[in-house]
Every structure is written in C-alpha cells, then in structure tokens.
Amino acid sequence: MSDTVGYDIDGAVATITLNRPDALNALTVELKVRLREALERAGADDAVRAVVLTGAGRGFCVGQDLREHADALASGDTSLNTVRDHYNPIVHALAEMSKPVIAAVNGAAAGAGASLAFACDFRLASDKASFMMAFARVGLGPDTGASWTLQRLVGLGRATAMLMLAEPISAEQALDMGLVNGVVAAEGLAAAAAELAAKLAAGPTAAYAGIKRALATAAVSDLRTALETEADVQAACGQTDDHRNATQAFLNKQQPTFSGR
C-alpha cells in the first residue's frame, strides 16, 4: 500500500506489515494513516478471512515516533490530537473487524506498538520479543486502548504495574501472564502465524465475528445485556450456511467445510 505499510495476500489471509525497520517501526502520522487504511481494506474484503499484523526487521513497533512528536509539541499540539485522529480509529478497526486478527510480535513492542498487539485477537511472540508500557517514561497516560485491553488480559494489578513502572516484559514472562497465546523461535514466527491464520481462515468466520461481538459486549455490560447479545448472535449465526452445513456434517460423521457465509 505504501513504503511504510506492506499489504500482502496469501489465499484468504492478509498480512499487514509495519515497514519502518530502521526506526523499529515507530509510528509516524503517515504510518498510522496507512495502517488504518490497510485494516479497513482487509475488513471490507470478503475474500480475506484472517489477518496477520507484524513488523519488518527486528522490532514489532516501539510506539509513537518521538521526533515527530517533539515537533508536534513545539508547534503547540499539546492536546495530542493524534490519539483521537489516529490511534482510536486504528483500535476500532482492529477490535471491530469481523474476522480474527493475529499479532505476530517479532521484536520490541512498546507504548502504542504494544497496545496494537493487545487490541488483536491473538498474539504470537518471537522468543526475542518484549513488551513495555512506555507511556509513563515520557510523562503520559495510556492510549491505543491499553487501559481497556491490558487489564482484561492480565488483570488490574499487573496492568497497573506495567503502566506505572514501565518495565520491559520478556516473551516468556508475557506467556506466563497470559499476555500472549504462544512463544516460538524467532525464525519460526512467520510460519507459526501463517499456520494459525490459515486455520482460522478455514473456520466459521461468521461465528468468529459473533464471538468477538459477544465478548466485547459482555466485557462492559451486565448479565442480562450479555445474555441478550448472545441470543442475537446465535440468531444471526443460525441463519448461516456454515451452521446448517456443519450441523448436517456432524450428523453424517463428516468434517464440516466452512465458507464464512
């Protein structure tokens, strides 16, 4: 799509690559705009049934480009408008995409970069990866959804410590905390992410969209609302070819084939 964001399709899987390797994929305005466009493109393409988000080079993403940020401060942008203009829409695009998104964290993930991974549905980490909530180091609070996602992944106590102490977390520590779904050798990360993405892409993607909706609703609602959302999701899934065909396949002792419809 641009020099700063790569977009590749292999079968039903789209891979979006943050591509500023010399800057550890630090987020400039251009990169943020192109990332949002790539996510929206993947979300709108019915042929894409799973998405992988990764970084080029030895870093996943170290967050906001601080040189560009310093220039913005010098120009008077102390309200940090990029949060509303760029980061928030990117998180919405990730969280509300009606297909699974895998973060393949190949190296350092810090600040908004780590938060991007937390907003994905799955996180696979290289054994060389690390995570750091770096916001407090520069006198800032969290953004890119970290206040919402992080405590749901690791609990309030650990989320508070990660955000306030701003200390790096290794890949193995992240696995122990439940922050990532798996850790693989660096040289095998791309293959592992591709394998998981292919498995998801071959699955009932309409049901996956319903699962994402139900979980997001239940995270911020009472039991009655969660139950009503589950009923709505089941009603929608019950009308799909995937459900009807999979039910018949089960009765016939066959493996179902899913179309995402």
Helices and strands in order, then pairings?
Layout: E1 5-10, E2 13-18, H1 29-44, E3 50-55, E4 59-61, H2 66-74, H3 82-95, E5 101-105, E6 108-110, H4 112-118, E7 122-126, E8 130-132, H5 146-154, H6 156-165, E9 169-170, H7 171-177, E10 182-184, H8 189-201, H9 205-218, H10 223-238, H11 241-251
Parallel strand pairs: 2-3, 3-5, 4-6, 5-7, 6-8, 7-10
Antiparallel strand pairs: 1-2, 8-9
Helix pairs in contact: 1-3, 4-5, 5-6, 9-10
Kindly summarize this structure in a few lines.
By secondary structure, the protein is an alpha/beta fold.
Task: Describe what this molecule looks like in 3D.
The chain has 261 residues and is of the alpha/beta class. It has two domains: 197 residues, 2-enoyl-CoA Hydratase, Chain A, domain 1; 47 residues. 48% of the residues lie in helices and 16% in strands. It has eleven helices and ten strands. The strands form two sheets. Strands 1-2-3-5-7-10 form a six-stranded mixed beta sheet, with helices on both faces. Helix 4 packs across helix 5 and helix 9 packs antiparallel against helix 10. It is globular.
Strand order of the largest sheet: 1-2-3-5-7-10
Straight-line N-to-C gap: 28 Å
What is the CATH C-level name of the largest domain? Answer: Alpha Beta
Percent strand equals: 15-25%
The SSE order reads EEHEEHHEEHEEHHEHEHHHH
CATH topology tier name of the largest domain: 2-enoyl-CoA Hydratase, Chain A, domain 1
* Cα-atom radius of gyration: 19 Å
Number of helical segments? 11
Per the principal axes of the C-alpha atoms, what is the gross shape? Answer: globular
Q: Which regions are unreliable across 5 or more consecutive residues at pLDDT < 50?
A: none
Task: Profile the largest sheet.
Answer: 6 strands, mixed
Coarse structural class:
alpha/beta
Mean pLDDT, to the nearest integer, reads 95
CATH H-level superfamily of the largest domain: 2-enoyl-CoA Hydratase, Chain A, domain 1
Q: Indicate the percent of residues in helices.
A: 40-55%
CATH architecture of the largest domain: Alpha-Beta Complex
Number of strands: 10
The tally of structural domains comes to: 2
